[in-house]
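tl;dr need the bound structure. longer version: we got a ligand (adenosine-5'-diphosphate) that a collaborator sent over and nobodys looked at where it sits. i said id run it. heres the input, straight from their email, havent touched it
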Amino acid sequence: MAFLVLKAVQKGQHSFSANEINYVLLFAITIFVTSIEVVVYYSNLRQSQLRQDALNEKLQEVLKGKKASQIVLPKDDPFYELTMTVNKIESHDRHQIHNLTNQGNELKAIVNNLPVGILVINRHREVQLANPATVDLLQLQIKTDPHPYKMDIKQADLQDLIERTFETKKDQHQTIHLKREPSEKVVEAMVVYNKQVHHRFEVVVLLYDITEAWTVEQMQLNFVSNASHELRTPITAISGFAETLMNGAKNDPDKLDEFLKIIQKESRKLVHLSEDILSISQTQWDGQRSLEVEECDLATLGQEEIDVLHRGMRLHQVQVSNQIPKGTKVQTNKEQLGQIIKNLVANGTRYNRPQGNVTLSYTEKKNRWELIVQDNGIGIAPENQHKVFERFYRVTADKPGEMISGTGLGLPIVAESVKNLGGEIHLNSEPGKGSQFILSFPKVLQPHTEL
Ligand code: ADP
């Protein structure tokens, strides 16, 4: 501007005094400087507005939990400190969210993999969460939306337990038999009342599957009652007949002979029971240690066991034939295999009819060999075939008076011994026709190795 004024003076279009020119120059310079200041001021204002917008946008993203990009400013920028703090808050926040997500996922994985059923019910009696174990135990359809818990739990005793927890605001627990297909499950149901968190988790139902322990307990109770019955009967007979003999019957030679035979028979029963109890604990112990493996003549071993059972065979009028080819050699533990043969042949004889047959045979396979014990006795009903290998289980006879005495330990001993020898057992049986036990063993057994 000063330049234009100067030009005008030089062209002589106007005549100005020196003072006037100075004023004009000063004015022009002032205007010029002020304009520059205004431009700089607005430029700074714009810059700071841009930074504020960027920071604001970043904080909004952080609030929404989104990943925002880092804002980088030169160190001398007035927003440098503030931007660094916002960046730090953002990465700290992201770290926290990451941790929480990880913890949430870990917790979810634990809950989903827990063998305990977990069902969370809110105060509106709606299911908030049910883990896979609950879905499996209660045989549910998976529903993700909250829904009334009675849609999932239909069983009255479990519903009562949950309602009692809501009413009393106290934890409850009870053993419950869940009716389900194909077989019922026994669960220890713990219903926990949550005092602190009233909204989402008012009541937590925990279902522990105790079917196995319960079944074992029942079998042991059965065993105790079976064993005490089996023990009491011969002991009562032995002491009763001994007393009768002492009271004078010993002077009658016929009675003396008859009563002594009864005493002998009953003592044998006692021996059998104590032997079975000792055998099962011994076999269990054998499973824990390395077994002596040796080459053994199978036909000879089979015959030795048959000879031991000779008396029982005569008593039941059952014929046992050993069809194992002479000279068949197998790698095995003689003691365990002898026990297996003895128990199976004894059962084939006992659960048979007069003139029945039991055969012992051998088949060679590629890497294995099979021992087959077959009888044409009373057979085992399909529903009992897997149960006969459970400890203390005995098939109840239709007429209890005719029940063959036993302990329910013979086949569990066989199963345990077969396992100790690295083998497998398979049962084919038909009531009224007979049973076939197929035992398959590996040809090579490593001596002194744990099986
Ligand atoms: P125990 O003979 O002492 O009862 P086991 O464990 O040997 O015990 O057998 C369990 C049940 O299996 C027996 O009570 C019997 O009912 C049935 N069982 C076993 N072997 C045979 C067989 N060969 N034929 C028919 N039933 C059998």
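gonna send this back to them w/ a short note. Residues 18-63 form the longest helix (46 residues).
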